[in-house]
Design goal:
Number of helices of chain B: 13
Distance between the termini of chain B: 10 Å
CATH architecture of one domain in chain A: 3-Layer(aba) Sandwich
Distance between the termini of chain A: 20 Å
Number of domains of chain B: 1
Shape of chain A: globular
Number of strands of chain B: 0
CATH topology of chain B: MetI-like fold
Strand content of chain A: 15-25%
Largest sheet of chain A: 8 strands, mixed
CATH class of chain B: Mainly Alpha
Mean pLDDT of chain A: 84
Helix content of chain B: over 70%
Structural class of chain A: alpha/beta
Radius of gyration of chain A: 21 Å
Largest interface: B-C, 43 and 38 residues
Number of strands of chain A: 12
Helix content of chain A: 25-40%
Chains: A alpha/beta (355), B mainly alpha (309), C mainly alpha (381)
CATH architecture of chain B: Orthogonal Bundle
Strand content of chain B: under 5%
Structural class of chain B: mainly alpha
Order of helices and strands of chain B: HHHHHHHHHHHHH
CATH class of one domain in chain A: Alpha Beta
Bound molecules: adenosine-5'-diphosphate, magnesium ion
CATH superfamily of chain B: MetI-like
Oligomer: heterotrimer
CATH topology of one domain in chain A: Rossmann fold
Chain lengths: 355, 309, 381
């Protein structure tokens, strides 16, 4: 598979009144054509900042790309002007946001909001764009599409609005679709529907997806690969199987342990103690060390590099160093890891059955 | 929506009724009658005048007649200008006041919106600070101070505009500027805050993510959403125009309602005072009501949900 | 990084002495401390506060800083321009007690004669600077005439720092006396508005139910009545004076405060900490003073800060159109009124009171904005 997107050592800071907030501190990953990459992590770990920077949507005077490259089809987006970015936004890369209640313009009709991108990128006239917009609404499962085009966002429910946002994002058949926690603000049942919709869309259009979430459960369902972020860095990245069956980073263990499973009768939900570090003054060494019961002395001194676990699986923890003591994940996590493989709760498996 | 309007109309009439009644009884408490404005009259002549104005009847009778006349659109006869009905005075004088008020409101709002937009777009830049400073000065410095300075500098010293009185368009320039400062500053401050909030909201990021030009983002998405709530400050702006007209018309000797109102107070012309009071109250209440209803119609969020507040 | 150089002992487990990650990075501060800090850091607001303090102090001590009384009339010394010791020697400052005007005539003598007539003085007290010799035709000659008013009136050792008004009263004394009166009116009106508004709004919200309903209907009708109309009506029937102005302003002035306070109290009334203390048997008085008042104090202060400048404006506005105070009483409005009548020939009579009222209004508005930011948790850094 060829690479659609390659992010290399990306670092982003915000200049605030209190000082420099180092929101992203050297992130590298790539996305292949047609692939779905999930980015997971607690809120504040830099997921949104990373992905917004891919479209250069961060507020300009405050945010600075300190270093790194964003290679989209081989071209570095970091050096593009705003004009050049406008040609890419909505056409090659588009985005779905977290809160459908606020991500639509309340005073503009849905139809016009969908048509805007079509008119801009496909050189359509309004009369050409209108049927296309209706078609898009149908595609995302909104009935009475022609009538709905003339309505305002508040006339739609939350789930319906998110479908509208998805329709807007799909309007110009983007090569890369970024979904920033698209289901977090929705009811559980609606969440499942939206996830299904996104999977269908991908099957139809073959576009790549970057799917952001803080909920590992959602990831199992949709992703080919998973990147785990903590304090502005990717601490573990691998295929979905690798992350679920063979997690290496204690933070990933924590995330897995805090994820409810369906088959458990006596739930032992673990939680990760403490809270993420203040990105104004990121700690020396491994940022996760203060919350990590497996922390080593070296963690307070040196940042761990990415250790290779397999060709597709890397993790940034000193535990993988040859000198480190051998530790096992907590029993609870191991039980889950086993559980995943046993119940096949993975959608990967289901997807196979689907096809 | 209909129920809401009905309720508001009801309150409007109650308020007007109270103003009419209170002003009636207050004026009755005061000394003075049409006679004070006249030369010495014989007793019979006085009697005739009092009879003509109905001032010999018992108070309740006068009160009921007064209310009845208001309903018929008759505001009585001026003491100061004998035989001239108050409604005639109002008719003669409302033109200049309306013209000035309208010009000031329109020009002031447009300039204010521009200033506010510039401030928001260049947030924390030099243009932001200057237009914010301008807005603070505009809302703070009293209109009569502005009017005095304008008249002194541009009419007396430089001679660019007439010093006072009412003639062609050039006579309206300085009073319009003096009147519009407050609406302009109010609109500028309001739009700046509103734009900053709107430009920071999620749907603006969505719009940018579609790849449309920054111009379209700011005008089609940002400005529209900031302009709708601007309607809510039209009330305070209109009040400032009503207040302003009292001083500005005096300063520039404009034959409008405000100047007449102040004059009538000076010479104790009670029927005119009461008529003008009712007129001003009516205008004020009407504007607030219209603004409220308009808002319900323009904002799609309220429009559909039936305008319950 | 050469990983082989890492010593073995660095890979021993780290003993967590205490979990420091839970510690809140910043020192904890109360809301009031946060608000104060935000306010103190607001440069514009602090500047405004300084201006207000200076003006207030001047309004107290200013009138007694020289020997003139605010209503000492003396027509012989009317309309004298400002003159200040020391500063009078700096030529570009308008404080040397002279007046300069340009006069025209058929020739220089004619123009000078006009000037002498205008200043009602004699030749020895004017300096004449010829701008244009003239050729005998009408208004062809032009002269700048500087009139030394203090010498002409035999007041060589007298200094009217801001000049005198049309009746020869000292402007400095009147300006600060007037500022004092305007401030007193505004502060009194704002304070009474505050008391009535808080009481009305608080009672309405706290008692709720039927009482609240009735009190709200009354307010809904009253807000329909424009302030301006009420104030004018009151002014017509009351004798002009400080008390009348205050009364006129408070008749409808408290309504805004009442509505705000009611809204806030309603919000607070059902919050858990209030419910909890009520369950614990706290008395109504205690709930109001311990829980409600401290929580609405911010919004009360902000609202009052906006009321004061609008009261100052109202006084000045009424006095300006001749319906407020009347000279010899001094207030910013009466001073501006007198100044406006003499604006063309004696601009200093208008400029100084106009500047003071503008400064007061600007400072109060900026300070109120600053307070609003300070009480807004979003603005705390
Ligand atoms: N506009 C901004 N100004 C300052 N700091 C910001 C801004 N946006 C995000 N940050 C900071 O960047 C960090 C990462 O935020 P974000 O990417 O939104 O996290 P999440 O993983 O929840 O999406 C946070 O510490 C946040 O405070
Ligand atoms: Mg986020």
């Amino acid at each position: 598979m060829s690479k659609l997107l390659e992010v290399k050592d990306l670092a982003i800071s915000f200049n605030t009144f209190s000082g420099e907030v180092q929101a992203v501190r050297g992130v590298s990953f790539d996305v292949a054509k047609g692939e779905t990459l999930a980015i997971v992590g607690e809120s504040g770990s830099g997921k949104s900042v990373t992905t917004k920077s891919l479209m250069r949507l961060l507020p300009t005077p405050q945010s600075v790309i300190k270093r790194g490259q964003i290679l989209f089809e081989g071209e570095d987006l970091v050096n593009k002007t705003d004009k050049e970015m406008q040609k890419i936004r909505g056409k090659d890369i588009s985005m779905i946001f977290q809160d459908p209640m606020t991500s639509l313009n309340p005073t503009m009709k849905i139809g016009n909001q969908i048509m805007e991108g079509l008119i801009k990128h496909q050189n359509m006239s309004r009369s050409e764009a209108r049927p296309k917009a209706a078609e898009l609404l149908k595609q995302v499962g909104i009935p009475h599409a022609e009538k709905r085009l003339h309505q305002y966002p508040h006339q739609f429910s939350g789930g319906m609005r998110q479908r509208v946002v998805i329709a807007m994002a799909l309007a110009c058949n983007p090569k890369l679709l970024i979904a920033d926690e698209p289901t977090t603000a929705l009811d559980v049942t609606i969440q499942a529907q939206i996830l299904e919709l996104m999977k269908d869309v991908q099957k139809e259009t073959g576009s790549s997806i970057i799917f952001i979430t803080h909920d590992l459960g959602v990831v199992a369902n949709i992703a080919d690969r998973v990147a785990v972020m903590y304090a502005g860095k990717i601490v573990e990245i691998g295929t979905t199987e690798e992350i679920f069956y063979n997690p290496q980073h204690p933070y990933t263990w924590g995330l897995l342990g805090s994820m409810p499973t369906l088959d458990d009768t006596d739930e032992h939900l673990m939680s990760i103690p403490g809270s993420p570090p203040d990105m104004l003054n990121p700690p020396k060494g491994d940022a996760f060390a203060p919350r990590n019961s497996y922390a080593l002395k070296i963690d307070t001194e040196l940042e761990p590099p990415m250790f290779k676990v397999s060709d597709t699986h890397y993790a940034a923890t000193w535990l993988l160093h040859e000198n480190a003591p051998k530790v096992e994940p907590p029993a609870e996590v191991k039980r889950r890891m086993a559980g995943f493989s046993k119940t096949g709760e993975f959608l990967k498996g289901e997807e196979g059955e689907d096809q | 929506m209909a129920r809401y309007i009905a309720k508001r109309l009801f309150y409007m009439f109650v308020a007007l009724f109270i103003i009419a009644s209170v002003s009636f009884f207050l004026m009755k408490m005061l000394p003075g009658s049409p006679l004070s404005a006249q030369d010495k009259l014989s007793d019979e002549q006085q009697e005739i005048v009092l009879e003509k104005y109905g001032l010999n009847d018992p108070l309740p009778v006068q009160y009921v007649r007064y209310l009845g006349n208001i309903v018929k659109g008759d505001l009585g006869i001026s003491f100061q200008f004998s035989n001239t009905p108050v409604t005639k005075i109002i008719q003669d004088r409302i033109g200049p006041s309306m013209q000035l008020g309208f010009q000031a409101l329109v020009v002031g709002t447009i300039l204010g919106v521009l200033l506010g937009m510039i401030a928001a777009i260049f947030h924390n830049g030099f243009l932001d600070y200057s237009s914010t400073l301008l807005a603070v000065l505009g809302t703070s410095i009293p209109s009569f101070v502005f009017a005095g300075l304008l008249q002194w500098v541009f009419a007396v010293e430089l001679g660019w505009f007439p010093v006072a009185f009412w003639g062609g368009f050039e006579y309206t320039v300085l009073p319009t500027i003096a009147l519009m400062i407050f609406p302009m500053a109010t609109a500028a401050r309001f739009i700046r805050t509103e734009m900053l909030e709107v430009l920071g909201s999620d749907f603006i990021t969505t719009a940018r993510a579609k790849g449309i030009t920054e111009y379209a983002v700011v005008f089609k998405h940002g400005l529209r959403n900031s302009l709708i709530p601007l309607i809510t400050v039209i009330g305070p702006m209109a009040i400032s125009l009503l207040t302003g007209s009292l001083v500005i018309e005096q300063i520039f000797a404009i034959p409008g309602i405000g100047e007449q109102f102040v004059n009538s107070i000076m010479v104790n012309d009670y029927p005119t005072i009461m008529g003008m009071t009712l007129l001003i109250a009516f205008l004020f209440i009407l504007i607030v009501l219209v603004v409220d209803i308009l808002y319900g119609f323009i904002d799609p969020r309220i429009r559909i949900s039936g305008g319950e507040k | 990084m050469d990983q082989n150089k890492l010593s073995k002992d660095m890979f021993e487990p780290l003993e967590h002495k205490e979990d420091t990650s839970e510690k809140i990075a910043r020192p904890s501060r109360s809301f009031m401390q946060d608000a104060t800090r935000t306010f103190v850091r607001n440069i514009a607001a602090m500047f405004a506060l300084t201006v207000l303090v200076v003006i207030s102090v001047m309004s107290i001590i200013g009138p007694s800083m020289n020997e003139f009384g605010y209503d000492d009339q003396d027509l012989t010394r009317a309309k004298i321009p400002p003159r200040i010791p020391v500063l009078e020697n700096i030529s570009w400052l308008p404080f040397d007690g002279t007046m300069t005007e340009t006069f025209q005539g058929t020739n220089v003598e004619d123009a000078t004669a006009k000037a002498i007539m205008r200043f009602k003085t004699e030749e020895e007290f004017v300096d004449v600077k010829v701008l244009n010799e003239g050729n005998g035709t009408r208004n062809s000659a032009e002269v700048d005439v500087t009139y030394h008013s203090y010498q002409a009136l035999g007041l060589d050792d007298t200094y009217f720092w801001l000049g005198t008004d049309n009746l020869g009263r000292d402007q400095w004394t009147r300006l600060w006396k007037g500022t004092r009166v305007s401030m007193i009116i505004a502060l009194a009106a704002a304070a009474i508005d505050l008391v009535i508004g808080v009481a009305y709004g608080g009672i309405s919200a706290y008692l709720g139910g039927r009482v609240d309903n009735i009190m709200q209907r009354i307010i809904e009708i009253l807000v329909g009545i424009p302030n301006l109309v009420v104030i004018l009506l009151m002014i017509i029937i009351l004798q002009p004076g400080i008390v009348s102005l205050i009364v006129a302003m408070i008749i409808t002035g408290w309504i805004g405060m009442a509505r705000i306070v009611r809204g806030e109290v309603l919000k607070l009334k059902n919050q858990e900490f209030v419910l909890a203390s009520r369950t614990l048997g706290a008395s109504t008085g205690r709930i109001i003073t311990k829980h409600l008042l401290p929580n609405i104090s911010g919004i009360i202060i902000i609202n009052t800060m906006f009321t004061i400048p609008s009261a100052i404006f109202t006084e000045a506005f009424l006095s300006f159109i001749g319906l407020g105070l009347v000279p010899p009483e001094a207030s910013l409005g009466t001073l501006i009124n007198t100044g406006f009548d003499n604006l063309r020939t004696y601009p200093y009579m208008f400029i100084y009171p106009a500047a003071v009222i503008s400064l007061i209004m600007i400072a109060f508005n900026i300070m109120a904005d600053g307070l609003r930011d300070a009480f807004d948790p979003k603005m705390h850094k």
